[in-house]
Amino acid sequence: MDMTVVELSRWQFAATAMYHFLFVPLTIGLAILIAIMESVYVMTGREVWRKATLFWGTLFGVNFAMGVATGIVMEFQFGMNWSYYSHYVGDVFGAPLAIEGLMAFFLEATFIGLFFFGWDRLSKIGHLVVTWLMALGANFSALWILVANGWMQNPVGAKFNPDTMRMEVTDFIAVIFNQVAQAKFVHTVSAGYLLGAVFIFAISCLFLLQGKHIEIAKRSMVVAASFGLASALSVVVLGDESGYVATENQKMKIAAMEASFHTEPAPAPWTIFALPGPDGGAPEFSISIPWLGGIITTRSLDKELPGIEELVHNAEARIRTGMIAYDALQEIRADGTNAAARATFDEHWADLGYGLLLKKYREDVGNATEAEIKMAAADTVPDVWPLFWTFRIMMGLGFFFIAFFAVWFYRASRGWLDTNRPMLWIGLLVLPLPWVAIESGWFIAEFGRQPWVVEGVLPTFYAASGLHFWDLVISLSFFVALYSTLLVIMVILMIKVIKAGPKDTLFDAPDSDDIDHVMVAVAATPATKEIGS
Predict the structure, then answer these.
(1) Quick one: angle between helices 179-210 and 124-153, nearest 10?
(2) Residue 523 lies in a domain
(3) Which of 19, 167, 323, 389 has a 20 to 30 A CA-CA distance from 398?
(4) Are residues 90 and 215 in the same domain?
(5) Which residues contact 350 (CB under 8 A, 6 or more apart)?
């Protein structure tokens, strides 16, 4: 496989995924907050809460439409850019994606329609049920996507079948309740809730700065401040759980995130700041807190946190075992009745993926040299320093939002929402920061898994389609241009909705003069005259 083609395929999928995930967490967060506001409206009967629900619901609808537009293309890329991945693990990966479409996306899309067009056709309780089902659909959609992604991080409940040459499900319950998937789900939806809270809070600050829509802005800020504080605390706590799970299943990712090149005595320190050594190697200067790294990652005082060098040595051993599995697989393909080869393969198949790492250097894996084995083992190390700094940016923003919403929760409890304009400006200017944290999190999750598209099972370079260089250059350029245009359109639409402000209805009634002009125009058409005669 041409590695330039592989890299372009990765860039194309990364671009579509990162664009798509600008919209998904906001959909998740706004859906829940809208449901909360409508619940308050139904309980109190106060019209201001209905107007707030309508206003934030309109912004939710714009965002949802853009999320759908960007998400559809991304799923097609599994077949277009990653065809061998689709063949190799499609039996496992495809099931949660199909369930997401049938159970979650259809549920969400259906009730979004009822949310917008059912205000005057459903009772208050009926419409509230619709809104909560819409929010539930958004969360279910995230659940099944993260079940699929969690399996890529920790491939449980499946086994390679040498007769079909693909991974097949052996325990679907294990796939669903994969500990990585569950940890990622609660962490991701909490991040979405945080983004929704910041979004509502920032726009409400804008209204107060402008002196417009004061009642709706204040009530929205109270909801956003309390919900945002709970979400920020959840993001940090559940992020810690997600990191602990990764320590058990993706040790190399954790070692790279911590720039831990050497195994430290337990408990390992936690590095706050570090400068890379020559050629991006072990840090030549660092500031660390003793013991904290071991306590966070292993939750113990006596467990070692393995360093990159030790993990590379372990990878060499697994590559050698993978070579045995690969040779046995070739014997099975030549003679399906070879019982000895099947027994050997069953014993070593779990390391087959490590054997496939050698395909980057030679076709006949079984004859790999020591130098090639060492190069393949070195490939299991992701780029350390982008992961190191991105993780600290994400973590720093998580703690910032706890402090931010704690302050505003206190101010809301005192009725000090609009008494300090500099504070309102800060509330407005933090709007982009949740997206920075969320995109950083996905970068860590996906970039930190390299060189694997499925951890320990399928190397990324082996999963790509055999596309031509210019096919990828043209399609990548087109997608970036298209998605950038869609992003600009979404921002323009949202600005128009925000400038228009909250309304009594979702759709403005036309002026009577406009109706008269339309009726005159209709009456003047030949078809209308014919009907009249």
Answers:
(1) 130
(2) no
(3) 19
(4) yes
(5) 325, 456
First-to-last C-alpha distance (Å) of the chain: 73
Query: What residue type is 416 in one-letter code?
Result: W
Question: What is the average pLDDT across 460-480?
Answer: 90
Domain of residue 285, residue span: 264-298
Residue 331 exposed, middle or buried by CB count within 10 Å (0-12, 13-18, 19+): middle
Both 188 and 121 in a single domain?
yes
Q: What is the pLDDT of residues 21-61, one digit of tens each?
A: 899 999 999 999 999 999 999 999 999 999 999 999 999 99
| Spatial contact of 233 and 241, defined as CB atoms under 8 Å apart | no
Domain count, the chain: 3
Do 291 and 322 share a structural domain? no
pLDDT digits (tens, 9 = 90+) for 164-214: 999 999 999 999 999 999 999 999 999 999 999 999 999 999 999 999 999
Question: How many CA atoms within 13 Å lie on the side-chain side of 168?
Answer: 8
- Is residue 117 domain-shared with residue 196, that is, in the same domain? yes
Mean of all residue pLDDT scores within the chain: 89
Give the pLDDT score at 486. Answer: 86
pLDDT tens digit sequence for 113-132: 899 999 989 999 999 999 99
Which amino acid type is present at position 517? Answer: H
Which residue's structure tokens are 């500099």? 422
- Strand pairing report for 158-161 and 458-459: unpaired
In a domain, 513, yes or no: no
Q: Is residue 317 part of a domain?
A: yes
Residues 371, 388 share a domain: no
For CA atoms 102, 104, 105, 108, the dihedral sign is positive
**Which DSSP string corresponds to 420-441?**
-HHHHHHHHHTTTHHHHHHHHH
Domain end residue (candidates: 378, 400, 424): 378
Mean pLDDT over 390-411 rounds to: 95
Q: Where does the pLDDT of residue 506 fall: very low under 50, low under 70, confident under 90, or very high at 90 and above?
A: low
- Residue 30: how many CA atoms within 13 Å on its side-chain side? 22
Q: What's the pLDDT score for residue 507? A: 54
Q: Tell me the two tokens of residue 117.
A: 């067009």
Cα–Cα distance between 533 and 516 in angstroms, integer? 21
Domain assignment present for 476 = yes
**Do 330 and 396 sit in the same domain of this protein?**
no
Peptide bond into 267 cis (omega under 30): yes
Angle at 441 between CA 439 and CA 445, to 5 degrees: 115
pLDDT digits (tens, 9 = 90+) for 405-459: 999 999 999 989 988 999 999 999 999 999 999 999 999 999 999 999 999 999 9
Residue type, 367: N
- 282 and 313 co-located in one domain: no
Question: Does residue 215 have a pLDDT over 50?
Answer: yes
**Count of Cβ atoms closer than 10 Å to residue 234 Cβ:** 17
**Residue 404 shares a structural domain with residue 291:** no
Last residue in a domain, options 328, 350, 378: 378
Question: Which of 208, 262, 197 is CA-nearest to residue 401?
Answer: 197
Say how many C-beta atoms besides its own lie within 10 A of residue 28's C-beta: 23
